[in-house]
Automatic annotation (TrEMBL):
InterPro entries: Fe-S_Maturation_MIP18 (IPR052339), FSCA_dom_sf (IPR034904), MIP18-like (IPR002744). Residues 7-79 form the MIP18 family-like domain. It holds the Pfam family FeS_assembly_P. The lineage of its organism: Bacteria, Bacillati, Bacillota, Bacilli, Bacillales. This is FeS assembly SUF system protein.
Length: 105
């Protein structure tokens, strides 16, 4: 398995997972901090949420797991939700900022 190609496909799948409150995908929001793949196809996604105590954390976590499982070669998915470093709007892509009407200044 080419890990780099696999990681690209995983990130593409994660772009299909939207934050339910903001309705923008978790990649463009900057919520995905890292994707690690071992030689056996086990994937660990390290991510955060926009707010601690998010009532939809379980839903988002399951959507991430389901999205990553769609990628050929993935045998298992672990989602690690972290709070450090904390998320802020500077992590968002230009596309997400435009969609939310956030102007850098």
């Amino acid at each position: 398995m080419d890990k780099e190609k696999c990681k690209e496909r995983i990130m593409e799948q994660l772009e299909e997972v939207n934050d339910p409150e903001l309705n923008i995908d978790i990649v463009n929001l900057g919520l995905v901090y890292g994707v690690d793949i071992d030689d056996d196809g086990r994937v660990q996604v390290t991510m955060t949420l926009t707010a601690m105590g998010c009532p939809l954390a379980g839903t988002i976590e399951q959507q991430v797991r389901d999205a990553v499982q769609k990628v050929d070669g993935v045998t298992d998915v672990q989602v690690d939700i972290v709070w450090n470093p904390p998320w802020d709007k500077s992590r968002m892509s230009r596309l997400a900022k435009i969609a939310l009407g956030i102007h850098d200044g």
